[in-house]
Design brief:
Number of helices: 13
Radius of gyration: 25 Å
Shape: elongated
Number of strands: 9
Strand content: 5-15%
Largest sheet: 7 strands, mixed, barrel
Helix content: 40-55%
CATH architecture of the largest domain: Up-down Bundle
CATH superfamily of the largest domain: VPS9 domain
CATH topology of the largest domain: Glutathione S-transferase Yfyf (Class Pi), Chain A, domain 2
CATH class of the largest domain: Mainly Alpha
Number of domains: 3
Strand order of the largest sheet: 1-2-3-4-5-6-7
């Protein structure tokens, strides 16, 4: 779909810079992108790569009709009136609408896939915020005396988004990461996931990650493992495939989820019958933390969430105070606080989950059994000891509450 008033794609300065100054990057994104967005007008400036990453989009792993920018900062979706709805992911400047002037669907026969190039009336973002030089300087590159910044990967705050940014920043392994992105896109696009064959999907994802690690270590000329790359690749692979496998996991765990709900209702009714003044213990902080499971994509993030939920549960039970300065949940004992035994920890976690399920709305149910299945099976590395302890406790609670022989 084109208009006689819109210049040819090859004549647009933004597109010219993309294919000439960033040809390797352009070749890379064609293997996984869904949209390449080209603004019609551009002042005579030389743009950094991040400007182009903000205009190239992949399918959102989380939302069906949304697409995420290559640098994972922005989201777009489309209106029926030929406009792009543009969002800042971190809730920065809200949303805006930009008119689409032209559309060209590209068929990549080599990769057996298609993507779309859109010409729009203005850039999605203010390009004045990027390094640039005037036309009079003949596009000489800017030389900085500062050392290049590579995003630091912090295991205590690792997420799907930070894993992508970290892996994408490692230029030495760019061919390996490009291949991984392409393979994951193909997996989500073509692979059929069935409840009885979920193990096949897990094995497929494990194989893709193993191949990526082998290629990366070869490019880095490393004989030993890199802990950051190992963890980031697990988070990215499982996070990318999450929305593909999640509906099947819900189907697989549906009957056990129903049993969990029914058993909790029986338990709560008996406690009310046995005690006239029965009141469910309320720990809203821990309950809210556990609800975050639905918002997290990778198994590692979910396991960390369970760990912080357990910490908040223990903190409330032992009158401990959460230390807000620590990125992980930490706490200091008050003068009245005292340590909890393992059976007390288990009981406190049981109470918390019963409280969450009993108070949940019909439309806001947290799929506790499905999260347990996903976290246990869709990971390739052992969990750190503290996180593993919390997840083992969580699994014990789920098994206890879904065991038909349990007497409530």
């Amino acid at each position: 779909m084109t208009s006689s008033d819109v210049p040819e794609l090859e004549d647009l300065p933004f597109y010219q810079q993309l294919i000439s100054n960033h040809s390797d990057f352009y070749a890379k994104v064609q293997g996984a992108c869904s949209f390449i967005i080209i603004p019609q007008h551009l002042n005579a400036v030389l743009l950094k790569r991040d400007a182009f990453e903000s205009h190239i989009f992949r399918p959102s792993p989380m939302y069906l009709r949304k697409h995420v920018s290559w640098n994972d900062k922005y989201e777009i979706e489309f209106d029926n009136n030929r406009a792009i709805r543009f969002f800042y992911k971190k809730q920065g400047a809200g949303e805006k609408r930009i008119k689409i002037l032209s559309q060209e669907d590209v068929r990549d026969s080599a990769r057996q896939r298609t993507y779309t190039i859109l010409i729009i009336e203005q850039p999605l973002i203010d390009l004045n915020g990027f390094e640039q030089i005037s036309n009079n300087s003949l596009y000489k590159p800017i030389i900085r005396t500062l050392s290049p910044t590579i995003p630091r990967f912090n295991t205590s705050t690792a997420s799907y988004e930070s894993s992508f940014v970290f892996l994408d920043s490692l230029r030495q392994i760019e061919p390996a990461f490009t291949r991984l992105c392409t393979d994951l896109f193909s997996f989500t696009d073509k692979y059929v996931v069935l409840p009885k064959f979920l193990n096949h999907a897990i094995d497929k994802l494990r194989l893709l990650r193993t191949q990526f690690l082998q290629d990366s270590y070869r490019l880095l000329n490393r004989q030993s493992e890199d802990r950051d790359i190992e963890l980031a690749s697990e988070i990215y692979v499982t996070g990318y495939a999450y929305t593909k496998v999640w509906p099947t996991i819900l189907e697989l765990t549906e009957s056990k989820e129903k049993l969990l709900f029914e058993n909790i209702q029986i338990r709560q009714r008996k406690q009310r019958t046995n005690s006239n003044d029965f009141q469910a213990n309320s720990n809203q902080s821990a309950s809210n933390e556990l609800k975050r499971l639905d918002d997290l994509k990778s198994s590692y993030e979910k396991a960390k969430c369970i760990r912080s939920t357990l910490d908040l549960t223990i903190a409330a039970k032992t009158l401990m105070v959460v230390d807000a300065k620590n990125s992980a949940v930490a706490y200091h004992s008050s003068s009245e606080g005292m340590a909890m035994a393992a059976d007390e920890t288990l009981t406190a976690f049981i109470d918390l989950i019963c409280q969450l399920v009993s108070n949940a709305d019909v439309n806001s149910t947290v799929h506790l059994v499905a999260h347990e299945y996903y976290t246990e099976n869709f990971r390739f590395l052992p969990l750190p000891q503290d996180i593993d302890y919390a997840f083992t406790t969580y699994r014990g609670v789920i098994e206890y509450l879904t065991n038909s022989s349990t007497v409530f």
